[in-house]
Amino acid sequence: MRIALGCDHGGLEHKNAILNHLKDRDFEVFDFGIYELESVDYPKIALKVANSVAQGECELGILVCGTGIGMSLAANKVKGIRAAACSEHFSAKFTRLHNNSNILCLGGRVIGIGTALELVDLFVDTEFEGGRHQRRVDMISEIENEGEL
Question: What are phi and psi of 113, to 5 degrees?
Answer without folding.
Answer: -65, -40
